[in-house]
Specification:
- The chain is an alpha+beta fold and 229 residues long.
- It has helices at 12-15, 41-57, 86-89, 95-111, 125-148, 159-169, 209-222; strands at 62-66, 76-81, 119-123, 152-153, 175-180, 187-192.
- Among the domains are: 40-123, GMP Synthetase, Chain A, domain 3 (2-Layer Sandwich); 127-197, R3H-like domain (Ribosomal Protein S8, Chain: A, domain 1), CATH 3.30.1370.
- It contains seven helices and six strands.
- The strands form two sheets. Strands 1-2-3 form a three-stranded mixed sheet. Strands 4-6-5 form a three-stranded antiparallel sheet.
- It is flat, with a radius of gyration of 30 Å.
Length: 229
Amino acid sequence: MSQRRRRPRASRRASSPPRSRRGTRRPKRSASSSGQPALRREERVVANILHRLFRILEIHVQFRIQPATQRQDDRVHVVLWGADMQLFTRPEVQERLEALKLLLQLMASHQLGGRQIEVEFHIDEDATRAAEAIKTQAEATADEVWRTGQPQALPPMNAADRRVVHIALHRDSRVETRSQGEEPNRRVVIYPRQPWFPPSEETELPRSDAETDKATSDADSDAPETPDA
C-alpha cells in the first residue's frame, strides 16, 4: 500500500502579526506632545513653593514659570499677576517683593541640596489690572447684596476670573459665593449669608476680617505712646 503524504500544516505564527514582548517600555512623551515645554527640576521646586506660600498667605496672586527654552540664562523667571499684587508693588511695600524672592531662593536651595539658584520676578500688568477690576466689581456687588438681601449673579467668566471672585469674597462675613451654570456661561452668584436682616441707614457696613485688621493697626499707630511703668 502506498503511503499518503501529509501536507505540512501552515504555521499560525507565520500568518499572525508578531506580538510585542512583555516588558517593552513605551516611549516617553516628549515635552512638545503636550504643547508645554518641560520644566527643569529647580523650576518645578520654585513653582511648588510659591503655590504653598500664596495658599498659606491667603492672597490672590497667580504665576507661571517661563521655561528655560524661552530664555538664555540659568535664572528661574516667574511671571506674577493677580488682584492682590498691590501688596507687593505699591511704592511703600516694594521691599516685600524682594523679601519674597529671597525667601523663595533660600527654600528652593534647601530642597535642592544646597545648590544656589537665582529667581527673577516679572509682573504682568495687563492681567493684574484685569484681576483688580474683577475684584472691585465683586466687592461692589457684595455691598449691594448685603443691602438688598437678594442674590446677584455676575457676568459669565472663565475659571481663572471666577477664582478671583471667590478669593476676593471668601473672608467677607456678609456674603457667600457659588459658581453656577455650564461653560461658557458659567458664572458666580453672590448670596447673602443667613440669617439676613435689612440694614438701617445708621448701620455701618460690616467689614471683612482683613479690613478690620487694617483698621485696628492704623488705630494703634495713631494712638499716643504710653510711658513705660
